[in-house]
From TrEMBL:
One of its GO terms (molecular function) is ATP binding. PANTHER family: ANTI-SIGMA-F FACTOR RSBW, ANTI-SIGMA-F FACTOR RSBW-RELATED. SUPFAM superfamilies: ATPase domain of HSP90 chaperone/DNA topoisomerase II/histidine kinase (SSF55874). This is ATP-binding protein. InterPro entries: Anti-sigma-factor_SerPK, HATPase_C_sf, HATPase_dom. Keywords: ATP-binding, Kinase, Nucleotide-binding, Serine/threonine-protein kinase, Transferase. The lineage of its organism: Bacteria, Bacillati, Actinomycetota, Actinomycetes, Streptosporangiales. It comes from the Bacteria. It comes from Actinomadura fulvescens. Residues 20-118 form the Histidine kinase/HSP90-like ATPase domain. The keyword Nucleotide-binding applies.
Length: 151
């Protein structure tokens, strides 16, 4: 965070996007602007952009958000300076199943593996029938995460 920026409450940013593949670039730009306004260091911005891109791509490819007229919501939260944490999440309109963190050469699942390597991945069902998938950054140095947790 910028040394001059001190705040006690999380800085919260939220926006909705159409569920089209082309909106992932818009999500990245929006996220970059939100993190810059909060004074987040470049390395953490880079990791957050990687994760939000993966989550938004998953929403457009694997859920009802990617159907005609579908939407998804992106939330970015910068925690108080003392914690130095960034939270990114995507809330989709639901799909079939729970996201999987997969290793190996498959075409699907590696994005969440990348997110899990960078931070703590969690997912929660939302009352509307969708799914909230989030990543808390940076990854704890002690390596105690399990690569995906359901709340």
């Amino acid at each position: 965070m910028n040394p001059g920026q001190q705040y006690d409450a999380p800085q919260h940013y939220e926006a909705a996007f159409l569920g089209e593949p082309g909106t992932v670039a818009q999500v990245r730009r929006w996220t970059r602007q939100a993190l810059a306004s909060a004074g987040v260091p470049d390395e953490l911005v880079s990791d957050a952009l990687t994760c939000v891109s993966e989550l938004a791509t998953n929403a457009t490819r694997h859920t009802a958000s990617g159907r005609p007229g579908g939407r998804y919501r992106v939330v970015v939260e910068v925690r108080p300076v003392a914690s130095g944490q960034v939270h990114v999440e995507v809330v989709d309109q639901g799909g079939s199943g729970i996201p999987q963190v997969l290793l190996g050469g498959g075409e699907s699942g590696r994005g969440l593996w990348i997110c899990a390597a960078l931070g703590i991945v969690q997912y929660t069902a939302v009352p509307s029938g969708g799914l909230r998938v989030s990543v808390d950054l940076p990854h704890p140095a002690d390596g105690t995460h399990d690569g995906g947790q359901q709340r």
